[in-house]
Design brief:
Length: 161
């Protein structure tokens, strides 16, 4: 099935604007090759919804920062980060983490950034500085938006490490 065959030509996804987030996820998820990250990106960038997509850069950096456990899958990190990250910073934080992951030697996969500085200089990674710990976020004003099972998992994980 295609959008054009179902909804007429020219193909358009404008009908998604009238759907809830869950309906959009279900609708797009039925198409081959459209996975959770792509759906999350459509929600955030095309539909201006409160979503926090988790790609390889976001996953790697949030594990390094211990915002999610080192064993987290992309799906697990997605659930946790969407609950933890305040809606008003989701787009900016996502974009910053992706850009940083593509440029920083320390945070890039295998220390090889996709887009190193043209002069090959290595800047000091700002993420080496101490940042807020997960338990502090879990106990913060945003705690009410974090599901209890997620809070419990992260409080347990951070005290065991």
């Amino acid at each position: 099935r295609t959008v054009a065959a179902e909804r007429g030509s020219p193909p358009s996804l404008e009908y998604l604007r009238e759907m809830t987030d869950e309906e959009v996820k279900k609708e797009l998820g039925r198409f081959k090759g459209i996975g959770p990250k792509t759906i999350s990106c459509v929600l955030l960038f095309a539909l201006s919804r409160d979503e926090f997509p988790v790609d390889t850069h976001v996953l790697r950096i949030t594990k390094m920062l211990k915002w999610v456990p080192g064993t987290s899958t992309r799906e697990g990190a997605y659930e946790c980060l969407n609950a933890m990250v305040p809606n008003d910073v989701k787009m900016d934080l996502h974009c910053l983490l992706v850009k940083h992951g593509k440029h920083c030697y320390r945070c890039a996969a295998n220390g090889k950034p996709q887009f190193p500085p043209k002069d090959r200089s290595k800047f000091v990674c700002p993420l080496q500085l101490p940042l807020i710990a997960v338990p502090d976020v879990v106990k913060s004003e945003f705690a009410s938006s974090i599901p209890n099972d997620v809070k419990s998992e992260f409080l347990t994980w951070t005290t065991v490490k």
